[in-house]
């Protein structure tokens, strides 16, 4: 049975979208099961909403079999419910951010007064502010500042020269990263991909080899998100090779090396290679121990705490809820960690509890994530699908209230 949003429209589950995509190809459930490598019973359970279709690894397997984009199964981007005024504000700027991204590489044609007031110190302050909104998962505030900021950074790159131009492109790279995360969190994956391309291009203009490699961390993520594991792996391997050739021992290089091993671990987990995932996670732990502190180089949080967080996330990706919960029980997040990162951690913990059948604990973790980052949690495909499944099989107070805020009831 479909359930309904606060606007009265039918809300599809991932399983219902999967069934519709299968029917569009005129496949039987058995044909889909064979093509995707899952049992007929599993396909039936997913389509009927009795089993949560939230794990990216499984979504990607079905998407590949059906030759569709994963978001055709997960349903993004989502529209915030009418009562979520902050969410409505967050999505209001998507079109303006997209326009700013499309302007990339085109002549900025600045007015005389725009060129005259270019101030790199002020732009640096504004980029720092935007990154603060990003780390706080303040999507509405991000959307409010990004369009004008990106325009001013594009102008600065056009009217400056030499070292100032390279600095301007470094700031523009960071601005594009903020835009990418803003769009990704709101489920606008195609626009986020466009932003990632801009990150890679502008990073090259900085002349900083570490900055260029950091941009490829996001580039690898684009291929990972659509199940192109070989391509993602090639980008990661090339980056690790280049880092080795640079023979850099600065903390920034060590941090970047560790971050790439974490990305490799995730890529392996999504490809159902648990052994490789654990191997790369172990190498990331070595880098974190060498670093000895939590850092935020290139806006890539890395260090002992982040490695421990990934130690929870990776078994969740592999469907190993008990391993994830055992590791989470030993982890205490420092309060200084960003709301964005802490909320994602609690999302993973909630999914791990759900896999274990611990539904009350799963709900509690999701509510913690929502308190830290309301819009990012409500827009998270895994949360929406898991909560929807919980509601379909066992409705109760706080769970239904969360479902209403998510728009899955």
UniProtKB/TrEMBL annotation:
Residues 18-73 form the HTH cro/C1-type domain. TPR repeats lie at residues 343-376. InterPro entries: Cro/C1-type_HTH (IPR001387), Lambda_DNA-bd_dom_sf (IPR010982), TPR-like_helical_dom_sf (IPR011990), TPR_rpt (IPR019734). The keyword Zinc does not apply. It comes from the Bacteria. Keywords: TPR repeat. Signal peptide: none annotated. CDD domains: HTH_XRE. Gene3D superfamilies: lambda repressor-like DNA-binding domains, Tetratricopeptide repeat domain. GO terms for molecular function: DNA binding. This is Helix-turn-helix transcriptional regulator.
